[in-house]
## 1
Amino acid sequence: MIEFVLNGEKVSWEGPDTERLLDVLREDFRLTGVKCGCKEGECGACSVIFDGELANSCLIPMAKADGAEIMTIEGLRELDCFRVLDRAFAEPAAVQCGFCTPGMVLAAYSLLKKNPHPDENEIRDGLSGNLCRCTGYRAIVEAVKLAAKEGGKW
């Protein structure tokens, strides 16, 4: 049995240690904000916060999740700082199809938690593991700048 904290709640899961965290989150816990994109850790659609760090859940075997603390976009939505990020992404129209959005928002949160006042290069670096095929990055960078300007309890 694998036990971990998921979005603030202690949970357990039984299955193969080699099962991907991505699949368990989507199929067993029904957390569909975690998307399956490239299956290689290149696109960021499967991003989660894993023990306080942004991580690609498609690369994490369940054995590594034992004892971990994991937050998905569904968990972030419960935090006050999500309101800041939500407004910041809406204002410059930094969202189109929405496939990359959960990963982008988690990347922005991770960056702002470490550096509440990043410059543009730091923002681009913080988002670099996440791909967007619709919006382009200008609006997304602007969204992170707005969130940083508004501030939040990251």
Note: Helices lie at 21-28, 62-65, 73-76, 81-90, 101-114, 120-127, 138-150.
## 2
Amino acid sequence: MSYKSPRRPQFFYTTAPLPCPYVAGRTERKVVTEVSGPEADHLHDRLSRAGFRRSHNIAYAPVCPGCNSCVPIRIPVADFQPDRTLRRIARANAGMDGFEMPARATAEQYQLFQSYQQARHGDGDMATMSFYDYRAMVEDTPIDTFMAEFRDADERLVAACLTDRLGDGLSAVYSFFLPDYDRRSLGTYSILWLIERARASSLPYVYLGYWVPESRKMAYKARFRPSEILQGGAWRVLGEPADHHPREVSSMVSEAAG
């Protein structure tokens, strides 16, 4: 007779309050849990469907007091239809080549990462990351992760997107690009590339993390239509009416724990 070992209990913790990085004057708190062990991929799938995001071996979701601005958002690949602006961005980058690379940090990536941080987020914590910090961000992953690299006609690395592969899609963890290429909208183009990659792999969704309507930096995520947002414990098409109530920590944990 064989015995199946019991599943290890999943523990969730709430972080101390910190200033919100997206909306000035607000306070941020997160619920976090460890993603590790032989069931890490399955756990991460459940957490992603419940609105969590991954950093290293930690999954987190916002549970900010009095605020429900961070909205999980994903793109249903089969229904996605690019509008005129997105088609223009695709044409502008027609000569770009995208490559799916192992999640291994390189000096070339780090140089691009530094240029992006100094130009876009010079006063942020990530602007001071050393190569070893960057390598940990890329390589410290308990799940199936790859780096999407984008090169121009001269084979110069101009954009990259750290990406997790889920059972039901691709999840864009962090993207960065050459600041000189602002007019090419490389961040948006990398998402278009992920959509096509997901479609080719018969994966139904591309997860974009959190959409924050009050944040201009997050506005681009609502360009991809139709999109689905997680509200009240259910994924709904963006724009459809829905009850907008804050999610309790206990509800989020229950959804994630399966």
Note: DSSP finds six helices and 14 strands in the chain.
## 3
Amino acid sequence: MDRRNFFKLGLQKVAGTAVKLADEAASQRARHWIRPPYALPELEFLLACTRCDKCIEACPHDVIFKLPSRLGAQVVGTPAMDILNKGCHLCNDWPCVSACEPDALRFPVADEDVEAPLPRLARAEINTSSCLPYQGPECGACKPACPVPGAMTWKMEKPEINPETCTGCGLCREACIVEPKAVNITSLYHETRDSSSEIP
């Protein structure tokens, strides 16, 4: 290997390590919010998003909001979803995605005859310590709220969430009548690190 190729290879390794570290740092911070449907991985999303607000304006249910300045210059003004208070309605025409010109929100590549799979937004889990059916009284307030077949199942009138099917849209949490809510919502980025903490 000549000197030029040696340094070229060295620079590629350094660049690769830097990108990996930046990706890990972005993913670590992303545990505290939930991006809109079909968002790119966090680092790619931050590089692509122009903070144009078009996805926020396009959301017919006012679920998407801008992250505040207190979270830092890297993410201020970028869109996130308020799934702790409102559910994503998984709109048929995905207006937020269609409005995203820089493709920070991007439909997955699929065959023309195959409908794109539903996006996985977050992780939802029943909090059995506050869910009424687990304490004795009947409820079922969340039963009609789930829009995804098979995502919520019922055993002896007690709800269970199938993590393989659930999109984490949060509509069951919005429909829940108890306080604190009996559905915990966590970022997908918690799954590889710490899935026990609910989004603040």
Note: The two ends are 53 Å apart (CA to CA).
